[in-house]
Amino acid sequence: MECIFCKIAAGELPAKKVFESEHVVAFEDIHKVAPVHVLVIPKVHRQSLLEVNPNDVDLLSGVQEAIRAVIKDTGIEQTGFRVITNSGAAAGQTVFHLHFHVIGGRELAMTLA
Ligand code: AMP
Ligand code: ZN
Question: What is the pTM of this model?
């Protein structure tokens, strides 16, 4: 298995983990674009949102729980934050294991693209 995020989820590659549950791991992005930049991933491999299926209820509620924990623990719950998932290379996806960027801790530009 050559997916780096599967390896991080399995503990086979180091990462600064900030949250972990049965279905999800959250860890700091190695190239932070803001003071808080955490990636939330499901432990099971899904390439992107396109691969999430109706049975992935635990996965999605786990992602929501992790995002809530990260924003509360870092204080960006109060100051504002953004959650992004890139799907496909044309959208900027470079790691093909579903991940949600949780970004905050500075003023974020008013842009969607
Ligand atoms: P994306 O471009 O949406 O696919 O985002 C991939 C993100 O993963 C980028 O922000 C990278 O900085 C980050 N990244 C890649 N490898 C690692 C790693 N080993 N540990 C933490 N973050 C990583
Ligand atoms: Zn994977």
Answer: 0.97
